[in-house]
Amino acid sequence: MNRKIFGLLIFMILLGSQVLQAQGVRYIKGKVYEIINNKKEPSTGVNVVISTEQNRLLIGTITNIMGEYSLKVPTDGAYKVVFSFIGMKPQTFRYTGQTELNVTMEEDAHSLSDVVITQQRQEKSEMGITMREQTSATQKINMDEIVKNLPVASVEEALQGRMAGVDIIASGDPGAKSSIRIRGTATLNSNSDPLIVINGVPYKTKINDSFNFSTANQEDYADMLNISPTDIETIEVLKDAASTAVYGTSGANGVLLITTKKGVKGNTHFTISSKETAKIEPNAIPMLNGDQYVAFIQDAIWNTANAQGIANSADYLKKLFDTPEINYNPTWRYFDEYNANTDWLSYIKKNAIISDNSFSMSGGGDKATYRFSLAQMDEGGTTVGTDLKRLTTSLNIGYSFSDKLKVNADFAYSDADKKAPWTSSVRAEALNKMPNKSPFWIDSQTGLATDKYFTRQNSQEFQGAFDGSTNFHPIIMANESYSNTRQKEENMTFRLNYDILNGLSYIGYVSMKFNTAKYRTFLPQSATDVTIDNSYANLSSDGYSNNLALQTENKLMYRKNWKQMHNIVATVLWRTSQSVSSNYSTEIYGASSAGMSDPVTGGSIRSLGSSNSEVRTLSGIGNFNYTLMNRYILNGTVNYEGNSSLGNANRWGLFPSLGFAWHAQEEDFFKDIKWLDQLKFRASIGQSGQAPSGTAPYVGTYKSIGQYITNEAITPFSMQLNKLKWESSTESDFGVDLGFLNNKLTMTFDYYYKYTNDLLQQSVTIPSSAGYNDQSNKISYFNSGALSNRGWEYRIDYEIFKNEDWILSSNFNINRNINTIETLPENLVESVYKFSNGEYAQKLIAGTPVGSFFGYKYAGVYQNTEETYARDAEGNVMVNLFDDPIVMKNGKYTCYPGDAKYVDLNNDGIINEKDIIYIGNSMPLVTGGGGFNVKYKNLSVTTFFHYRLGQKIINKARMESESMYGTDNQSKAVLRRWRNEGDDTNIPRALWNYGMNYLGSDRFVEDCSFLRLKTLSVSYNVPKSVCKKLYTNSINIFLTGYDMFTWTSYTGQDPEVSLPTGIKDLAFDNAQTPRSRRFAAGISINF
Amino acid sequence: MKSIKHILLSVLLIAAFSSCNGWLEVIPQDKQTSDAYWNSQEDVDAVLNSGYLYLRNMTISYLIPLGELRGGSIYSITTNKLQSFQVKPTDESICNWGPFYQIVNIANVVLANAKKAQAKDDTYEDEELKAHYCEAYFLRALSYFYLVRNWREVPLITTAFEDDSHTYNVAKSSEADIIKQIKSDILAALNTGAAKETYSTTWETKGRATKWALYALMADVCLWSEDYAKAEEYCDDLMNAHSGNAPALMTTPTHAKWFSMFNPGNSNESIFELQWEYQENQTNTLPVLFDNLNTNRKYQLSSKLLEEFKSEYTYTLDNELEAVRSLYGGFYTENLLTWESATNGFVWKYCGSQTLTDKRTATYYDPNFIMYRMADVFLMKAEALVLKSDSKADWKTAVSLVDSIRQRSNLEKLGYSDDYKEEDILKMILYERRMELVGEGKCWYDLLRFGRRSNNKYKTMFLVDNVTLYNKQAGESWLISVMSNDDALFLPISESELKANSLLVQNPYYY
Asked: Interface pTM (ipTM) of the complex?
């Protein structure tokens, strides 16, 4: 198949060159001059070419030192002779059989100035449709402005808050995955990320689900967009189904169109830019010090012993008095090491530097243009051990064989090296660690810390032995363990444009992307203090994955205009894509050193894995756009798409869409309104789909399960899913685009409604009576349920003032999305609520928005015994048969003064599942951004704000640091814990592995609305006169502050909490690395 | 010129379109796809084998605990909700019926596809195909028999879940419908006339479904459904078989002969037993679970049963007879010499080696699990005879059948007396079953069958009294109160199954 398409392309190239036909031979010669100091001198090195009428070059030469040239001219046919030289005006002469042609070159005034010639043509989309002719919701931003002044490491970061309806949450760690949602999450289990299209070619970022590196977390391999932000020219976002239709179903979650910079005709330009950014981490939540911790633990154990009663308290008293870690016992061997005062976090956090350097070179002549870029970035993390280094390079070459035939080749290479500690919970561990423990051995003579790590972490230790995820030495973990990903990517695209007839053109491309990722992890034994035979001892893994994506597209486009009345653009295209990947991994333990993770070097193998996968898609798309009288626009698209992940019966899906737009300002009755420049109404409706992922997940399989004595036993392993089909969505969009005051004030408003049904659910449980017990009764996918997203977006841009010296402009966007479950999926199994500390209930109810939390109402602390009496609905104390008052119970635990008080909604004297109510929703009410720019002569100030409002979150980090349940260190807030009657506090008393004092209640649900000054940037363009003296075209110097101020009432470290990807998951703040304040200084030189 | 190019181009495009559906057929390279599976007789055989393999894998987790613990003959030394009658729908490891349905599906898949394989395999004779059907029917009937005895009402599924063309949600069928299906499956198998009497190897003859296994199962099912005449008939089919391949009751009253049923196993008496073989690296933990010295031991004899075994042993000692199914036959104690005062008794069947008192060594941890053997059939026939009619002749035969089992163990003959009432003979049969078949996963089903028949006629006498007498793992009043509810005699449907299958309703008593 692909070979056919490739053949087709070659055929097209041949088509172009076939114009070379049998022709006779003639000669032309002459001399070329230029004017130097008003004297006519011979000009050396001037290009002289013979070209056809379509500007296809046939033959060429350059003038010799005497300025002479001689050329062979084919007989019959019309030709031109073209003379060109850098810095000179090109000159063209019609060939009429001259045998001698002398020419004098003239200097080109334009080429000396730095004015870049703006494009004459109106920009058109991939489907040949101009912005004006569009009927759908799109937004475009020019990256240059953003990137020039801001220290952004990734495209996602640059876009955050800038586009209405695009919700991006970036992460604080270098290279970690950001989540991008265009108009909310519209799918349950398959991919919700938007499609990224680079220069017209879909960029496959999805990591296949057969990806099974034993220890890797899929996000570790982040969908890193390995493009340097400085290489990007524009980004356009397509939001509604009608506009994404041309990208097929993979655009169902929205499309980000990225256009990279290309070479421009003219002198070669060099740009060098360099940015240094300092990352300064915000203050951490203060934790208890050593003495406070010991006092708290003793308090907790003592309280529990009391609550248990004398009969059952022996173990607790023993714990209280016989645990050397929390007692004063100078004769104990480790006395010094457990009488320290350690701020664990201070050892593993640091301020860091991001340095970002890029170089680019571009230029070109009449026939060819090129651009080369090289960028290097090194982002240090604020957690010790994290780091991202990236090298990107790209080369773009365009060549016009003639006015009819153009080819273009893009090559891009990137190499990203991401480093992180073995576990992402280093910070959490540092916060939980007992502060009276020393990280280092203490010299018994001097009482000072030595440089030798104190690694004691066995089961006798107070906080216990390493359990696979917690209880390790955070400093060793940060410094010596690693989890490194090295990703290399090569991307090649070859593109061909051919104008077949007037208005009819062919465009085709072949694109190949190779991606290899190497993954290595190591967990040193010193960090965990496990014995050498433990399967975590010197645990190391080594994995490799390799992916090839091959895409082709053939497109025929027809544009025609009749008398300025009717304008049509019709396009048909045929697109193929094929993605093949394979991976393997090995994991061993007991290795003798960090470099020995290869299984052949010894150590015991813990796991081995490998897999292959392949997915193919085909789609045929037709698009028709008709404009009547330059004001009524009708646009229709049909996509017929097939996917190898679906069975024969449902493999092909048909997805139509239709749009209508009306440029009302063109109507006579609006013509007179001078201040109105644009009034465009848009309406569109379209369908799209999602296919399941993975290699043919519908295929039923049989598998060998061993032998019954000597007979081979084979069993049905997975069911053939013939009913599996496309998840389909229908989206309608209504929008208005307004422009006033010579388009100084523009506004866009959109309302949308997207309904997704036949939701694809992954790994669905079927009844065990179907007979797949050994496979945990799972089938890979099942279509069921419906979901809707509706909302609105508004954006305004206003150029408030402009004169020669001053420019003042501002922009603002706001959007609201409501995500609702319309029909609950048939076999949706909700996670069962467990009545225990820290647990929140989950309820998915048809007709309600997703993201709701359910839990208890917190009512503070019981101050005295009187308060602990259970009361009926009238507020009277309830009594038992013997007329004694009934005491409230939190589950099975009788409440005592100092315990957490929850509202007993059903007045039965027991806090249990029946007292759970709705306590909040994690979906924001509105999100958006805005800012203003001021420019005075060469100085400009840019600000940008980002906000999310009306969003609730479970502050799990605070819950864990105020729970006072186990051995974890707690925040200073617990110094306010209840101790005696009358203590004015809402923090319960300390208990030791006992009680229900931190049930999932609204105590830990917080509003995390925020407004954040994302960027404040001052930039200065060095005046032209100075630049000239420095032999440069322009110099720009800038200073930028990033994430400088945040206005929020949220008590956690950072209100910008990433939301869970599945709608079934609750939104927790797990205290990831907080976003640092960043200050950048940079310079960009153009010459 | 130009137009020719365009025609050429369109031809190419059309060619591209036509082959595209095939191009989208991506088959996983590392898996055996189901539509390419059924090609030969061997393919059918391999799927049937996984049915036996699944059944075998259930011995320790299901067949023994479900069949024994509620009955009280043996008990688990670790807490077990079955023996304390406290199983809840959340106890997934006990009430997940998935493993039984896995075997049902294997049978359904074979019945649906074997013909396809025959069409492709010239050497696959009709007889062989029918024999495969017999095995499939047997596996399906056996699975449903376990399901119906434990859950009473379960979804009746006879279509193969190979693809998603059938609805996953199936409601429960009545006990009668399931019994009907079981019987019709066994009859269908027998009616093919192709049920094998013997296979090419001994282990297969005993380890796969034979005509004999079908008879034994049918007799058992008929007893359960109170169809005593039929039960007798199928027992007779076995007992009076003229075929040289028919299993026969071991009659020699020696320990060595009797114990050869368990080690090395696959004896002449055996009808169907699940197979293990250490030489193929297929071993089990049965010897461990019953080993008094192993720290992972699990099962012990109830003290009442220990006393009964002791008195049998005393009888043989007193009469200077060889002890057969008593000490180091049916049971053993921690110390050979102090057996008289021993308070802990264990089942010897799975631990014992071929010598008298030595245990199997770890290498030979491959005892088979016997599901049907002739002694069971003799006792089933006795049961059928007693209940079939009031004919004293039949009752007399019934007692003599029990005596034939006792005789080979050198135990006192019970002898027939005209004063016997129905329940007196039934009591003898039940006692004999308990002693002879201890540890073979039968006890609870026996009590349940004896107790439920004739509208709970003997519920107190045979079920409640026996459970309270033997089972000391739960309070007597608790046991009586639970068992007073007929619904509590069956297991709940697991929580996850209820969630996954919207048509299911929890069994009564567990709402």
From this structure: 0.91
